[in-house]
Amino acid sequence: MRGRSLCRRVFLHSSVSVAAVLLVCGGSGCPLNPGSSGVPVIDLAVGDSGSGFFLKGDAEVPPFASPKMLLYFDVLSGDNQQDPDVVLDAVDVPSIARPISTVLTEDDLYVAGDDSWVVSIWRDYRSLADKGDGALAPDVELTGLETLAYPHQIIVSSNRLFVLNRNPFIDGGKGKNGFTYGVHVFFDAAGITEDRAPDRVFADAIDPMGMAVDGDDLYVADSLGGRVLIYRDIDEELLPPKALLAYDAELAGPSWAYLDDDGPLLPLRVDVFDNTLYVTTASNFLFVFDSADTLVSLAEPSAVIAESNGALATPWGAEAVGNRLFVGNLNTYAMPVPFKGVVPGLSGEATIGMVGFDGAPDLAIGQQPSVVFDASNAQVPAVRDMSVEEDVLFAATAVPGSAVLFDYDNKAAETRPVPFFASYYAVGDVHIYTKADHILFGRPGGIVLPAMKDFFGPLSIDTNRKLTGSN
């Protein structure tokens, strides 16, 4: 370790003291795993942004500077201070640069690196724990044969890999370098052994920000287009392979209760649970649509929930646990530009990071949240990603605000405003809640994996419940 005069740690700070958060969540202040019998065996993958700062004059890479992928096996059997079982560092695996989206299947690990323009695939991810550092390269690095530009979200469903591909060039679907943005679908996901072109491409969105898959239906949030596009029967055998396929329905105008008359709503994420479509927008709305599988163009929502007392502040996706719908907040401004999209960390004013609405899927217009997770009591200032395994909720948090440089003894040495690009790098923890649908008030997770121990700030997470039983 180098002297503190040359090497500093960099992380983001808000009105909540990050140092206090780390002391509480890294020590005895957060409750530990109760260790009761019947706890499910769940593996966790964490895509770490890294600090992204390489301070001038440092001959060595500062701690936490590079992005990483971390794997925790049977994470519920550990406590706040457990170590990851596998660490993949972007220094050794460049394809995971800025791991913006992560998927764990029963056997494999998929990572979208939007700075590398690659989707990396590791087969039999649990075997990585027994391999040496030189054997941790991905089994497949997928570029779609140079058709992917910025893979922003990935989903594996029914052995199909869906890659939502953003592109900084707005010119009707084709970038200047030939990249096609939209959703690329690769069949036989478990059988991909080398780079290849996608089997289906859906490229109607002006700027796709989020997608959801339910059976053979695909939903795409077109942010700059101010709409959600729906594609039906995407596996239909009669469709020509490798075709650019048109959408079947479009949600716009009356679908937003005409609330977009004063400006674009910027849909950010779409999620489908129990045949109900949820759309979260940068304009702080949650839209609910019943009977998702029969929605037609310009369908009206069954419920609209707006920002109320700060409950929704740039909501960024949802997860369902029982009849409770959790919605995570980015707590940031939305940047309506194609490359930057939504930039976490520009505003530290909002303090509610996550809310839960009971009664899903039958939410009511204007319904208030049943449980609120804030920056102080719950230590959840913002949420970047969530994952659910039955009644266990995982939330990757972030702390928006200004950049603070710290010496090794954690004494603040210098404060700087966050530059435009630096908001990509926000410090955060991973909170794990068991029996999440029965939580009565916002609190820290039963297990909190703390920032600045093994990772800097989680960009993406995913989980896999093992089918072999429980502890």
Description of the structure:
- By secondary structure, the chain is mainly beta.
- Helix content is 2%, strand content 37%.
- It is built from 1 helix and 31 strands.
- It has one helix at 18-26; strands spanning 9-13, 40-48, 68-72, 86-89, 99-104, 109-113, 118-122, 140-142, 150-157, 160-166, 182-187, 200-202, 208-214, 217-222, 227-231, 249-251, 267-273, 276-281, 285-289, 303-306, 315-321, 324-329, 352-358, 371-374, 383-389, 392-397, 402-406, 412-416, 430-433, 447-449, 458-470.
- Strands 4-3-2-31 form a 4-stranded antiparallel sheet, with no helix packed on it.
- Strand 25 (383-389) and strand 26 (392-397) form a beta hairpin.
- The chain is globular and about 55 Å long.
Give a quick set of tags describing it.
471 residues; mainly beta; 4-stranded antiparallel beta sheet; 31 strands; disordered N terminus
Low-confidence stretches: 1-36, 170-176, 334-348, 401-424
| Intertermini distance | 38 Å
Category by helix and strand content: mainly beta
Helical content, roughly?
Answer: under 10%
Got a strand count?
Answer: 31
| Rg, Å, rounded | 21 Å
Shape: globular
Number of helices, where a helix is a run of at least 4 consecutive DSSP H or I residues: 1
Widest sheet: strand ordering: 4-3-2-31
- Please give the largest β-sheet: 4 strands, antiparallel
Secondary structure layout plus pairing:
Elements: E1 9-13, H1 18-26, E2 40-48, E3 68-72, E4 86-89, E5 99-104, E6 109-113, E7 118-122, E8 140-142, E9 150-157, E10 160-166, E11 182-187, E12 200-202, E13 208-214, E14 217-222, E15 227-231, E16 249-251, E17 267-273, E18 276-281, E19 285-289, E20 303-306, E21 315-321, E22 324-329, E23 352-358, E24 371-374, E25 383-389, E26 392-397, E27 402-406, E28 412-416, E29 430-433, E30 447-449, E31 458-470
Antiparallel strand pairs: 1-27, 2-3, 2-31, 3-4, 5-6, 6-7, 7-8, 9-10, 10-11, 11-12, 13-14, 14-15, 15-16, 17-18, 18-19, 19-20, 21-22, 22-23, 23-24, 25-26, 26-29, 27-28, 29-30
